[in-house]
Write a structure and sequence with these properties.
The chain contains six helices and no strands. It is mainly alpha-helical and about 110 residues long. α1 crosses α4 and α3 packs antiparallel against α4.
Length: about 110
């Protein structure tokens, strides 16, 4: 079993629970709060992850990273983005210099803004 399996299972659980009762399901409650609240929670967890990293606290870094990824999966589900969509984008970028990839996104934004 690969480590990706847990992400797939969590994503499937989020999709299943979004139809649940917000009174009994954390996921349903979070998703009912809407995109802004979910995004805020991802940001909070990201900050806590950064703090753990800066404090060289490996256990806390692991725990906060897991929290951040869990809430990130909820944000994806809320936005109608699948984990496969993100993995496909990472595969598309594989072997491309980060500097080149970033420059191509800036160029693409400039041409679509015109």
């Amino acid at each position: 079993m690969s480590h990706m399996d847990i992400l797939d299972r969590l994503y499937a659980l989020i999709l299943e629970r979004r139809k649940g009762d917000p009174a009994t399901s954390y996921i349903a409650r979070r998703l009912k709060q809407g995109t802004a609240k979910i995004a805020q929670k991802v940001g909070e967890e990201a900050v806590e992850t950064v703090i753990a990293a800066m404090q060289n606290d490996k256990e806390e870094l692991i725990a906060e990273s897991a929290d951040m990824m869990f809430h990130w999966l909820m944000l994806l589900a809320d936005g109608g983005v699948s984990l496969s969509d993100v993995m496909a984008e990472l595969e598309r970028r594989e072997g491309v210099s980060g500097l080149d990839e970033r420059a191509s996104r800036k160029l693409k934004r400039r041409t679509t803004d015109v």
